[in-house]
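[step 3/7] fold_predict: job queued, chain A
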Amino acid sequence: MDMGQKIYDLRIKRGMTLEELGTKVGVGKSTVRKWENGIIANMKRDKIAKVAEALETSPAYLMGWEETTEHEPTSKPDQNLLLKYHYIDEKGKHTVDTVLDMEYNRCKKTNQSKVPTLNSEEGKSHLMPLASHERTDIETTEEMKKHDDAFFNE
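[step 4/7] structure written:
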């Protein structure tokens, strides 16, 4: 499917008119019609990005580099949260991650919303505890215990 057809399909799926899409992108409805019909085949990068944002998809999908449009639109409040998260330190990120995981699990258990199952451990290695107890998977020698004691007492 070419870019014009993708733009048309997504515009119809989103219930938008030619004029509404044109307004969001900053062009006239005739330009949108020409994109959809393939009369204008070489769109500028900034226009592709604006069309993708308006149609809640990615430029990569429109360009044919991705097969799916399954991109959740990022709202302004979500963008603000991500920006704030980006600028807090590691302790703050740990706190946010912990609270978010707790709330996610609470909602999932109480079925207050349809919560998808996520791979919660992915990208969270900084949340994994670092154990400092005696190992039970091997036979420890007295020398190993002394080494560990010395290490932790430094």
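[step 5/7] annotate
The CA atoms of residues 31 and 98 lie 48 Å apart.
Residues 3-63 form a domain with the 434 Repressor (Amino-terminal Domain) fold (CATH 1.10.260.40).
exit 0
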